[in-house]
Q: What sequence folds into this?
């Protein structure tokens, strides 16, 4: 059974608009929630994280929102740029353990 | 700071053959992970090392997969014998114990094709 679900396999957005990627999880015991970005033929790279005690974390164009009651996580990218086109993985973890990843969402930003 | 190194980058083998992958983590990182990423899926943990000890290998198919981390630095993942369903990208990652949320740095991966 999947502990982390990214229900949208793909998302297409125009340059300059907002991209919203969503993630749902099942276990309320997770300590941290992270987003990784992956380009073809490269390993995933860390993008942004949020701890379970917060509901928002912002880093430049990227903002992550955590809704613990709904067990829902979202990543907002504003404004979207063509270089943001990649696969985005939602990941969760209990401190000291390995990451549990969703299946990923492929974001395409057109100019 | 050098990143996580992996080799080879690509490998094609016949089923029932053996294969080995190598990983060199970021210098000073005590924790090393091997993940398997099947096409269309997210990475899935195979094994986690802390220095040269195994922390979690619950999802490692031990009848055919083995891994070691000699001297707590480099690591090798072996598959013997390989099956068609082992076709995947094998990712190595490392993290520092000082990281509050286990920020993991990934290597480029080894793409394995089993024919």
A:
């Amino acid at each position: 059974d999947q502990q982390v679900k990214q229900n949208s396999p793909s998302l297409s957005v125009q340059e300059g608009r907002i991209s919203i990627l969503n993630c749902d999880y099942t276990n309320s015991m997770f300590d941290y929630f992270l987003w990784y970005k992956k380009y073809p033929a490269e390993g995933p790279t860390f993008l942004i994280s949020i701890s379970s005690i917060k509901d928002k974390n912002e880093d430049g164009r990227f903002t992550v929102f955590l809704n613990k009651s709904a067990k829902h996580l979202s990543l907002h990218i504003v404004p979207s740029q063509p270089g943001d086109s990649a696969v985005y993985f939602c990941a969760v973890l209990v401190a000291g353990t390995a990451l549990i990843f969703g299946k990923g969402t492929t974001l395409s930003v057109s100019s | 700071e050098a990143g996580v190194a992996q080799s080879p980058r690509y490998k094609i083998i016949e089923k029932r053959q053996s294969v080995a992958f190598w990983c060199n983590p970021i210098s000073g990182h005590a924790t090393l992970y091997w993940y398997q990423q099947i096409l269309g899926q997210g990475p899935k943990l195979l094994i986690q090392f802390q220095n040269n000890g195994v922390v979690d290998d619950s999802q490692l198919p031990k009848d055919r997969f083995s891994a070691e981390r000699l001297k707590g630095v480099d690591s090798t993942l072996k598959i013997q014998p390989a099956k068609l369903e082992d076709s995947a990208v094998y990712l190595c990652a490392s993290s520092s114990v000082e990281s509050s949320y286990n920020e993991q740095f990934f290597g480029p991966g080894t793409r394995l094709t089993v024919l």
Observations:
- The two ends of chain B are 37 Å apart (CA to CA).
- Chain B has a mean pLDDT of 93.
- Chain B touches chain A at residues 4, 33, 35, 40-45, 48, 55-56, 91, 93, 100-109 (CB under 8 Å).
- The CA atoms of residues 36 and 90 of chain B lie 5 Å apart.
